[in-house]
Design brief:
The protein has 324 residues and is an alpha/beta fold. It has eleven helices and twelve strands. The chain has one domain: Rossmann fold (3-Layer(aba) Sandwich), CATH 3.40.50.300. Strand 1 and strand 2 form a beta hairpin. Helix 4 crosses helix 5 and helix 5 packs across helix 7.
Length: 324
């Protein structure tokens, strides 16, 4: 199956008073139609910056220095701003991690979805209002007619997130980017939101890029996983294979750091710290935290195939203990 979205060698820098922040360094990922891909890593690993680059929402002081972002073979980095406005909302939508602050506080939630439909789906106002109620009902909001007349401050955090999902899916996009969609929600509501995303993705056929630091979310929702560390893509694999046979030292460290139930082995914090992106080390940015570091790690980051559709960017993967 051909890729719906293919990001290759994406590089993003930010100009600051302290210097140039090298936020994303050669990031790579791909998503097939109808697939759910998890983008995981510690805070500051470049996940959200990658998502904003895909939508061309980065503004100065951000600079996209290189790479390709292809939607059905069309390089979005070469599109004009007018062309990108047509892509956003109609072909790619995003659910942000702070739903209450992402909604317009002076417009009812129904009016916000209605304006989106009129602009991106060429719906007439009457049709749009009917579609608003239909979408709110589809994402599990009770009394959708009444809720459509309310404002963000009148809704709970979980309900605001459902509204954001309704907005994102209202125009039937081909790709939905969800950036930490369960942040700030209690466990039961978060589980409902994840189930909702999975079910709506299956029903609509939309591909989903799930950005998260929570590997439990990845295990529950995703088909494949892309792991980022300090702006670099270090491993990508089918979800089952990544959990059962992780290849990169950073991925293994992430899995060991997951809290365990009583009686299981204790969680192990990842040693060291994420390098400063103002002056990151050459080569692999995990090298200074890695027990398997070699001299070659500071020179290049070769990508190896360690299984079908399983790639790892690591010198140490060549050692017998890492190959299968």
């Amino acid at each position: 199956m051909s890729d719906l979205l293919a990001v290759s060698d994406l590089t993003v820098h930010f100009d600051t008073d302290e210097g140039v922040v090298q936020a994303v360094d050669g990031a790579t990922l791909r998503i097939a139609p109808g697939e759910v891909v998890g983008l995981v890593g510690e805070s500051g690993s470049g996940k959200s910056v990658t998502a904003l680059a895909i939508l061309r929402l980065l503004r100065p002081p951000a600079r996209v220095l290189g790479g390709r972002i292809e939607l059905d073979g069309r390089d979005l980095l070469g599109c004009s701003e007018q062309e990108m406005r047509a892509v956003r909302g109609s072909q790619i939508s995003m659910v942000f991690q702070s739903p209450r602050t992402s909604l317009n506080p002076v417009l009812s939630v129904g009016r916000q979805i209605e304006r989106l439909l009129v602009r991106h789906a060429a719906a007439r106002p009457g049709q749009a209002r009917e579609r608003v109620v239909e979408m709110l009902r589809e994402v599990g909001i009770a009394e959708p007619e009444r809720r459509a007349r309310q404002y963000a401050h009148q809704l709970s955090g979980g309900m605001c997130q459902r509204v954001m999902i309704a907005m994102a899916l209202a125009t039937s996009p081909r790709l939905l980017i969800a950036d930490e969609p369960t942040t700030g929600l209690d466990v039961s509501i978060a589980a409902q939101i994840l189930d909702l995303l999975r079910d709506l993705g299956r029903r609509t056929g939309a591909a989903i890029l799930m950005i998260t630091h929570d590997l439990g979310v990845v295990a529950r929702l995703c088909d494949r996983v892309v792991v980022m560390h300090a702006g670099q893509t270090v491993e990508w694999a089918p979800v089952r294979e990544l959990f059962h046979a992780p290849a990169h030292p950073y991925t293994r460290a992430l899995l060991r750091s997951i809290p365990r139930v009583a009686g299981a082995r204790e969680m192990e914090p990842i040693p060291g710290w994420v390098p400063s992106l103002l002056a990151p080390p050459p080569g692999c940015r995990f090298a200074r935290r890695c027990a398997l570091v070699r001299s070659e790690c500071g020179v290049s980051v070769p990508v190896h195939a360690v299984g079908e559709d399983h790639r790892v960017a690591c010198v140490a993967v060549e050692a017998s203990q890492w190959t299968r």
